[in-house]
Amino acid sequence: MSTFADTFFKLNPDSLSLRLYSATATDVERALRNPAGDLSSLMALLSPAAMAYLEPMAQQAAAITRQRFGANVGLFVPLYVSNLCANECDYCGFSMSNKVKRKTLNQDELIQEIAIIKARGFDSVLLVSGEHETKVGPSYFEAIMPMVKAHFNHVAIEIQPLETPEYQRLAKLGVDAVMVYQETYRTQTYAKHHTRGKKQDFINRLTTPDRVAKAGIDKIGLGVLLGLDDWRLDALLMAHHLDYLEKNYWRCRYSISLPRLRPCTGGIKPKVELSDAGLVQMICAFRLFNPQLEISLSTRELPHLRDNLLPLGITHISAGSSTQPGGYQHPQTELDQFEISDERSVDQVVLALKHRGFNPLWKDWEGAWLTS
Ligand code: SF4
């Protein structure tokens, strides 16, 4: 059965990189006239040459976003259920060899976390865990899903890659979306940063969205960890992935996340810094390439930057986040996966959204429609 791996290994990243870095102003101007659905146009918009066109890109991206999504910004909250992990990723505080206290929420603790985030108004939750097959594998999520689904209309998961039948079981229990970030599409860089555990298997991760789509899950989230390698090329390769998925699994919805590498316990420094202007360029380029695409921004970014990026193409943001299991009930930083930059409360984020004319959306999904 074909997967994105067949397409990916026919791409030549070095030649794509050459074309990306040799794009001219004329290429960018042509791309701005015809940006949607065209990978060549996206390449020009991600190129260094496009930095001189940030203003027209931003204006066009903001107009498309407003036309497609109105003033709505979806709010979601991550709920970390475990920091156990059997992988070694040198940019992550949960890495197996890091001497941090490990914790997996039991059902009582989970209920307490749910009660806190429900009281803050959330109806969309992202369950996050480290990758530990035996302790937080599919059976853990199958056990907790009924409890989680009883409180949230929209449930997304960011957990270890699974097989299609496992995703099918979770879909039946109410999982609406799966986030699976490739981290980097450069194979050598991937091997350098993933040195132990199942996550070393680049192809298994690369083909996970195929398995998610085949299981009939509604939404798939892609992402690269910006800073591990050249962000322009990684973004372009992610766009190839998105393009393949949209063409092959057209029933699914897609989102991307654009996390910049953040400090964490025992973590590394970015190889390639992505500036704020670069982040603007990337958001605008993806919005122009794909007007339907959901783009989410986490609390890794500073408040003023998050607020200013919103109109350009962001459709979903997290707020009041904790990146540790049990962190809503017992805030402490030593278990964090990474440092948070936007530490505003949920109320403060909502107020800032309204102040800028946005409509904070707690709920944009009604599970009952599917079963009626
Ligand atoms: S990035 Fe994920 S898989 Fe890697 S150490 Fe962190 S939690 Fe584990």
TrEMBL record:
Pfam families: BATS, Radical_SAM. Its cofactor is [4Fe-4S] cluster. The keyword 4Fe-4S applies. Keywords: 4Fe-4S, Iron, Iron-sulfur, Metal-binding, S-adenosyl-L-methionine. Residues 71-298 form the Radical SAM core domain. Signal peptide: none annotated. It comes from the Bacteria. This is Thiamine biosynthesis protein ThiH. It comes from Shewanella inventionis.
